[in-house]
Amino acid sequence: LLVGNEIVRRHYQRIYVNTLVWYTAVFAYTIFAVPLIIGQIGPLVFVLSGIVSLIVIALFIKLLQQISPDQLQASVTWMLSVGGVFLLMNMLYFLNIMPPIPLSLKHTHVAHQVQKTSNNTYQVAYEKEPWYQPLFGDPTIHVSSGEPVYFFTSVFAPTDLTASVIHRWQYNTQGKWVTASEVSFPVVGGRAGGYRGYSLKQNIFPGKWRVITAIEDGRILGQTTFTISFRDTNQPLTTTAY
Predict the structure, then answer these.
(1) pLDDT tens digits, the chain, 242 residues: what are they?
(2) Is the pTM of this model over 0.85?
(3) Could you tell me if residue 99 is inside a domain?
(4) Is 201 helix (H, G, I), strand (E, B) or coil?
(5) How many domains does the chain divide into?
(6) 3-state DSSP call for residue 16?
(7) Which residues pair with 212 in a beta bridge?
(8) How buried is 229 (Cβ within 10 angstroms: 0-12 exposed, 13-18 middle, 19+ buried)?
(9) What residue numbers bound the domain in which 148 lies?
């Protein structure tokens, strides 16, 4: 461990390594800041964030060259290092590995009923899972034949940012996920508890289901998998206000 720390410390003493780490932080910041300034998210906004980060790092390197020209002669190393980080971040984004920053999923519920009240709250009635449920697989939702199933989400978005969120209902058949329906609704940022929305599925049938919460360009905020089972008796429900 001591030898490893010494080796890492020597690398961090190299100014181009420090600058590369700093550029990674700058890129991460612009991914968050530029959408806030523009009020939108999407591929073009992400590309613009990357361009802003390149401008910032170029100005920073220019300043370092003025201060310490002897240490900044390996221009090819700079270009390859910064270009590598830039390409990596773009690959993560366009391969849908990176989440749709700055949006985040705060709450999800597969529910029996969702009602919006007069005081602008949502009453969500659902089967409460025991604390150990994640250890035994996906939860089971018990419904009557012909009863709709609701899916409620609360999506956090910073102030003045707008986006469209999609609920994609899918069922599993022979090991493959098939899309049954999609519901889209707008999200407006600024609410501390997240922007609330829900969708419902009629004519649902027993089996394995999931709802993917995504944005318009396909990037996924999260997904909830569950099993639908027809019931003979009523299940006790928990109601939470959002």
Answers:
(1) 454 455 555 544 567 777 888 899 999 999 999 998 888 888 899 999 999 999 999 898 888 778 766 655 556 777 788 899 999 999 999 888 888 888 889 999 999 999 999 898 999 999 998 888 888 889 999 999 889 999 999 998 887 788 899 999 999 999 999 999 999 998 887 787 789 999 999 999 999 999 999 998 888 999 999 999 998 777 889 999 99
(2) no
(3) no
(4) strand
(5) 2
(6) helix
(7) 168, 223
(8) exposed
(9) 104-241
